[in-house]
Each structure stands twice: as C-alpha cells, then as structure tokens.
Amino acid sequence: MQFVDTHCHLDHHEGRSVADQVRRAREAGVVTMVTVGTDMASSTQAVATATRFEGVWAVVGVHPNDAMEATPGVLEVIERLAKDEVTVAVGETGLDYYRDHTTPAQQEDSFRAHIEIAKRQDRALVIHCRNAWNDCLDILDDQGAPDRVVMHCFSGDLGVVERCAQAGWFMSFAGNVTFANASELREAAAAVPLALLLT
To answer: I need a surface site. Which of 35, 87, 175, 189 has the fewest CB within 10 A?
Structure first.
C-alpha cells in the first residue's frame, strides 16, 4: 500500500537527517510527503528540502502562535516562497486561542495576509485552528477562502464539519482522535464526507 503524508515537519526532527527521514518514509510506503513551514526559516527550509527530494513538496507560512513575526518583510518572503514550483500550499496559518503567545488581533492580521497570498499564488491554504472555530470560519467567509483549504489537525464539532463540508474543505484528523476523551471528535470525523477526509 502507498501513502501520502500531507503534513510533516522534516526540519523538526532531532537526531535524524532529512535524508534519513525521507528514506525511512519510502521504506514504509510513503511515496509523497508535504513538509510544512511554521516561520520564515522553516518555510525556506521546506522549499529547499522539496527541491532536493523527489516526491517532497512544501507548505510555507507563519504559524498563528508566531503571528507577531508575520511582518510585511517576512510576508514578502513567504509570498516569494509560495511562488516556487515545489510549493503546494500556504500555511500553516489560522487562529490558536488555546495558547497566548500572540494576540487574537495579531493572529487575525497574519491569517488574512496568508489567505490573500494563497489566492494570489493559486495555492491551497493549510489552517491550524484551536479553540477559535467561529472566528476562523467567519474570517474565511469575510475574506473569501482560496479554492483549496485543508483544516489541519481538525478539532471542531459537528457544526464546524457541516460548514467545512458545504464549502468543500478538507478536514484532517490526527492522533488526538484516538484519545479516550475524544468521543465528540470521533463523532465529527464520522460525519465528514469521505471525499473530504484526511487522516
């Protein structure tokens, strides 16, 4: 069986080189990998890695927990990286009200800027949203989402699933769906149309 890893961070692994990670993934049947940046440095690295390894693609952006770093100069670099032929998406961006590293206003400004970059460069948008679903979806409605959206590490409820499904957005579920206290998240996963479900 062959697999696609739609969201990995090849630059975050301590103790294993990118080449070793890619080799081990290939041995496990992972034929395509999408390595995701969370700031300017890791986004630059993601593009360099995707350029170096066949079957590896890049996502570039500033994580909402680092939204204070999404200055005009940084966003200019992110947009330049988004133009690269190995870049398939912009992100991971969005809103995270669980942690208070950045203010909601900083996160919103960064999120809106990423949405516009994704639309200008015809790239998918990879969204990180935690404890901020109403604001996240309202911003997407207000700003106008790009054609392709992935809700990474989905944590919304059935109402969020319905809104995302109506918009045709992908919903990606991670290991937290297996937690003993995640019965509502499992209900949400079960309600996602299969064509929009990533695991």
So the answer is: 175
Sign, Cα dihedral of 98, 102, 108, 111: negative
Tokens 């935690």 sit on residue: 130
Rounded Cα distance, 124 and 90, in Å: 6
SS3 content of the chain, % helix, strand, coil (to 5): 45, 20, 30
CA-wise closest residue to 82 among 105, 67, 62: 62
* E-state strands within 70-123: 87-96
- What mean pLDDT do residues 25-30 have? 96
Amino acid identity, residue 158? L
In this structure, are residues 125 and 150 in contact, taking their beta carbons and an 8 Å threshold? Answer: yes
User: Is residue 69 in a domain?
Assistant: yes
pLDDT tens for residues 66-110?
999 999 999 999 999 999 999 999 999 999 999 888 999 999 999
What tokens appear for 24 in the block? 């081990």
Residue the block writes with tokens 């009200």: 97
CATH number, domain with residue 130? 3.20.20.140
